[in-house]
Amino acid sequence: MHFVFGGAFNGKRKWVKKHYENQIDQWHSAYDHPISFTSITPFKKCTVIEGIELYVKELLSRGMTVSDVCNTFETTLNQWKDANGLDNMILIGTEIGKGIVPMGEEDRNWRDACGYVYQMLVQEARIVDYIWYGIVNRLKEEV
After folding, report:
1. Distance CA 27, CA 11 (A)
2. Which of 71, 102, 124, 131 is disulfide-compatible with 6, CB 3.0–4.6 A?
3. Mean pLDDT, to the nearest integer, of 25-31?
């Protein structure tokens, strides 16, 4: 799995499209239309899921706790791993925290859930890239 994250409108989508040119056979974007993260079935070639933070927010809006959201993501990752492995997955998430603690409880839960989910994704990912203003910084690469 390749996890790409960074600030909003900082070039993550553009970089992934260029880096994986002609390799992507599925692109799911929570920015274009709401999709259930858990209903996505990865193909053998290359599947991109963009807007992880919005998937987290959607799960929270259904009444899930931060812990429930983390368990849902862990279950889904395990299902993907069992079905096809994670090597064909590219997940894109926007950094929403940057150390700022939101005033409202809902926003704090969103920030916390994203932080936990992103930690899980970084642990599972073979490659992790941080993109800020179009500049890529590779944080992890396992061979």
Report:
1. 16
2. 131
3. 89
Q: Which CATH number is associated with domain 2-138?
A: 3.40.50.300
Type of residue numbered 132: W
Residues 118-143 as b or e (16 or more Cβ within 10 Å = b): beebeebbeebbbbeeeeeeeeeeee
3-class DSSP assignment, residue 30? coil
53 with 31: CB under 8 angstroms? no
Q: What is the pLDDT of residues 34-88, one digit of tens each?
A: 776 667 776 667 889 999 999 999 999 999 999 999 999 999 888 888 877 788 8
Helix (H) or strand (E) holding 32: none
Count other Cβ atoms within 10 Å, centred on residue 98.
7
104 phi/psi in degrees, rounded to 5: -85, 145
Domain ranges for the chain: 2-138
* Identity of the residue numbered 135: I
Of 28, 33, 34, nearest to 13 by C-alpha is 28
Contact 128, 139 (CB under 8 A): yes
How far apart (Å, rounded) are the C-alpha atoms in residues 127 and 5? 11
